[in-house]
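Journal club prep — side note

Before the paper discussion, L.F. wants everyone to see what a predicted structure for a comparable chain looks like in token form. Sequence:
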Amino acid sequence: MENSFYVGISRQSVLQDQMDLIANNIANINTPGYRAQNMVFEEYLTKAQNNGKGLDNTDDRVSMVTPYGQFQSTAPGPVEHTGNPLDVALNGPGYLGVQTPQGIMYTRAGNFQINAKGELVTGTGQIVAGKSGGALVIPKDARQVTISSDGTVATDKGAVGQLMVSEFANEQDLDPAGNGLYKLSANATSTAGPALNTKVVQGSLEGSNVQAITETTRMIDVLREYQATQNMLQTEHDRETTMIQQLSKVY
């Protein structure tokens, strides 16, 4: 296979990854607290397939493209007042702690509920972590729940605890883990710190920061680039076919 085919296929491969990411963004356009994800690519050099030598007999390299990773848009989503006392939004860069089998993870989705045990849980059923890491249990006979700006949870029966709200010096250290959760990257340069610039707003909910028009435009651009690469590969295929036909003629 000629080098141009390898380059084209590598380009189509990363375009497919980018399309999958854009499609996931659009699918989460109504997910509370969702942050839009973006792809990052890098150059990948490999030996050419023509014996790996250029005209000057030095190693010939072919430049391809490969996924490097992804980053999230840290712009806050729109905040809507719901009036539900179990809904909270974060005014600031902080994240809410959530208990998972893999340890504490983080979310911006504050659409909380109360499970059968009286524990405060996320919309997908994970236990909301208190400041010390434990669960926040609402008394079964409680009639009113209040959540203050510092995350303190109380009922008409007394104080329950305080939400774990953490901030990160670099929000890109958080990797998406599904279900609206983010986990600290293995290569993180920052750790979870106290919420110095974040306030909890009860009765409100932060929506997704995905911009539908922007993502649709990106999807069209990726599709056009994929088609252009396909046309290039087809042209190269036709050129080689013609060359073989001409060279194989018997005169």
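L.F.'s comment for the group: The chain has two domains: 3-73+210-247, 79-203. Keep this in mind when we get to the figures.
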